[in-house]
Design a protein that fits this description.
Helix content is 0%, strand content 45%. A five-stranded mixed β-sheet has the order 8-14-13-10-11, with no helix packed on it. A four-stranded antiparallel β-sheet has the order 3-2-5-6, with no helix packed on it. It has a three-stranded antiparallel β-sheet with strand order 7-9-12, with no helix packed on it. The protein is an all-beta fold. β17 and β18 form a beta hairpin.
């Protein structure tokens, strides 16, 4: 919709209006239009004084009706789908110049933001980033761009599931172990030796008489290492 107020420099003047180059037709101030289509428009108005003199340079005003929401896009370069990083940076654009943006993390209320948007101190869990653009006419993107990813900065926990008795006459030993994260790999150490890759079960033979210590630690698929080996 649009409403125009206008006046003439001579008392008693009458007016004619034109919208989008239509023929001039008698009108009064204010002149209102409704149901305007999206796109560019031009309003013109001319005065005629009581003696019939017509303004040969009508007053005019041009404007654009924009009812189309912009489209928001998250550009490449964000976090991996699964990552150990507790920080994330997002870059985004809209297909209409002059658009502003609002961002939301994990379902929080949208708040004004700009590209790039940085987050730090993220918890180890699933996350969702959403961003929507609003164009200069106030149209907001009803389908915000979104990205889902998982932060896994937590080390797996390793458990020894089977082991020899605390005191035994056997010079052999077999250990079975597991981790609380699927896809984890393991490293084993006997009697303070350097950790080396191993799988469950781990067997030792020819052990000397005396005290022994077995240690095993898990590393998850993202490289987080259990810092408290079983």
């Amino acid at each position: 919709t649009a409403s125009f107020d206008f006046s003439g420099s001579e008392a008693g003047s009458t007016f004619e209006c034109s919208l989008d180059n239509a023929a001039f037709a008698a009108c009064t101030s204010p002149k209102q239009y409704t149901g305007l289509s999206a796109g560019s428009h031009e309003f013109r108005v001319r005065a005629t004084d009581p003696l019939g003199n017509v303004d040969t340079t009508p007053a005019s005003y041009s404007w654009t009706v924009d009812t189309t929401a912009p489209q928001t896009t998250i550009t490449p370069g964000g976090p991996a789908a699964t990552t150990t990083s507790t920080s994330a940076t997002f870059n985004f654009i809209a297909n209409e110049q002059g658009s502003t943006f609002e961002c939301s993390l994990d379902g929080a209320a949208y708040a004004a933001c700009s590209s790039p948007k940085d987050y730090t101190g993220l918890a180890s869990s699933a996350h969702e980033f959403r961003v929507r653009a609003t164009d200069a006419a106030g149209n907001a993107d009803a389908t915000p761009a979104s990205y889902n990813w998982t932060v896994d900065a937590a080390a797996p926990q390793t458990t020894i599931d089977a082991k020899p008795a605390a005191s035994t006459s056997s010079t052999s030993a077999t250990f079975e172990f597991s981790a609380d994260e699927q896809g984890s790999t393991f490293e084993c150490s006997l009697d303070g030796a350097a950790f080396a890759a191993c799988t469950s079960p781990k067997q030792y033979t020819g052990l000397t008489v005396g005290a022994h210590e077995f240690r095993v630690r898990a590393t998850d698929a993202l490289g987080n290492v259990d810092d408290s080996p079983a």
